[in-house]
Design brief:
It is built from 15 helices and seven strands. By secondary structure, the chain is of the alpha+beta class.
């Protein structure tokens, strides 16, 4: 049997991968760390000499723990879907090494996390483990307590949802800033034509639980409906860098109260996420820009 130090060293070799798996399932850096810590505790209590594939064993444990956490979160009224979504952009470089940051930045963005959060816990886990980490359905099936065929269907449904949503952000940062500025100006001035022009026909606005509590609709779809929602409004909002990405912020006394996170594709706004949760806002690096 491994000594404790030897086992800890072997575990550390898998930590980056495990955190990436947990983060993609949970959408929360802090929850991901909790899941990884639980995996270590279970490993330390087990007979590691009986574990032939440590990486696979740990991945399965982290997946099971993450699934339980996700299911628990879905059933807690005080922690509804969406409350953890923006943590990808909130994750601080001080909390993890550059390798972990690169893993997260590789394929996880706010838009993708928003789509993943619309899936059932089993769908999300099946999609993440198979499509992002190439785990065979035969290994995923016991985790979600379904047959391999049924697990394949879970991932397939999730894949259709993800592919049906536009999660690829516009790479032209200059154009992105111009579009966000145009959106803000048109909103303030009540310029309906310009508002509609910068919006994708199928644009969606999603509000987190904190914004819903203040009266915002959880979801508004369509260019006309979204334009009407912002018509003549956003007068106190400012263009800002939200962890380096252009968006909008409404602040009171220098303290952000609402962040508007934009997804752009082809120069059009395809999604706006309204973030008002104080815990999440406190983790964001918000830098207002002079416009």
């Amino acid at each position: 049997m491994d000594t404790h130090d030897s086992l800890a060293e072997r575990f550390e070799g898998h930590r980056t991968h495990l955190r990436a798996v947990a983060y993609r399932i949970l959408g929360s850096a802090s929850d991901a760390d909790d899941a990884v810590q639980e995996a270590w505790l279970r490993l330390a209590r087990s007979d590691s000499s009986r574990v032939e594939n440590l990486g696979g064993w740990l991945t399965t444990v982290v997946a099971r723990v993450s699934l339980n956490m996700l299911q628990s979160r879905k059933t807690r009224r005080e922690d509804p879907a969406g409350s953890h979504l923006p943590e990808e952009i909130a994750d601080s470089a001080d909390s993890a090494g550059p390798e972990y940051q690169a893993v997260l930045a590789d394929s996880v963005g706010v838009a993708l996390l928003v789509v993943l959060d619309t899936l059932t816990p089993a769908e999300r886990l099946a999609f993440v483990l198979h499509d992002m980490f190439a785990m065979p359905f035969e290994e995923i099936a016991p985790i979600v307590e379904r047959s391999p065929a049924a697990t394949r269907q879970l991932a397939s449904r999730a894949r259709r949802r993800v592919q049906g949503a536009d999660t690829t952000p516009d790479a032209d940062l200059t154009r992105r800033r111009e579009v966000v500025q145009a959106f803000l100006a048109a909103s303030r001035e009540g310029d309906l034509g310009t508002l509609v022009a910068v919006l994708d026909p199928d644009v969606v606005v999603r509000a987190d639980h904190a914004m819903v509590r203040t009266g915002a609709q959880p979801e508004v779809r369509g260019a006309d409906a979204v334009a009407a929602m912002f018509f003549g409004r956003a007068k106190a909002a400012k263009v800002a860098l939200i962890n380096g990405v252009t968006g909008l912020v409404w602040a009171v006394g220098g303290r952000p109260r609402v962040v508007f996170s934009f997804t752009l594709t082809g120069g059009k706004i395809t999604a706006i996420d309204l973030i008002g949760d104080p815990g999440t806002l406190g983790q964001l690096d918000v830098v207002p820009l002079l416009t």
